[in-house]
Write the structure tokens for this entry.
Amino acid sequence: SCNMYENYKNAGNVSRRSFLLKGSIATMGLFLARPESWANSLDFAKKPNSKFFGVQIGVITYSYRSMPHDVEQLLKYILESGISAIELMGDSVEEYAGKPADKDKVAEWRSTVSMDKFEEVRKMYQKPGVSIYAFKPDALGAKNTDAEIEYALRAGQALGANSVTVELPKDPAQSKRLGMLAAKHKMYIGYHAHTQATDTAWDVALSQSPYNSMNLDCGHYIAGGGSNTKESLLALIQAKHNRITSLHIKDRKTKEHGAANLPWGEG
């Protein structure tokens, strides 16, 4: 699955109307390809369908961060974007489930909270046609307890996801720890990398557990420069295709040209 709108991470307080317009322009190249493949997607009275030629296009909900929202408002934005699958950030769903405002109480809450509210969100989103393929809570770091990590894995399962995502740790002990807990729950952990990405950046984590996987960000990889090229990126995807649980896609300049995130078609 791919996240089309991550490229707006530096866009600031973009208006909802402007965001949706840019998103529409971003998909236009797909729309022009073969009318029968997208006709149903344009009928918003029906369930959204952002699968094109067998490829599920999705959105990481970080893309809507400039628009205040709870889980219901977020769902409205997703449907208005015509999107049928998402990588869900943790804040809104955790608030829906009752996460305490006191940070000192969050770890204890996570270790005991029922999965009922997470299952409610899965059903709430599935009813109009939105699936959750990945979950990204702030609960998978080196400072988080094992109980918090297991909570994240259980919550991801309750939401219907097949992976939780987290930044690729610098310490191999942390990816080993995560991989062992992931194997216990039979839930994938997709590691996301920024411009430190190389062809071998994930090798240690992937060797530590069959449930350690890649959340490969193509834009960050290209902006990393050096030996990272579009040709090496495609080779990496081919070589590691069976260890990639999701991709992030953005239109971005190369390191030599400033590495800026740009609207689709301008990078």
Q: What stands out?
A: The chain has a mean pLDDT of 87. The CA atoms of residues 71 and 180 lie 31 Å apart.
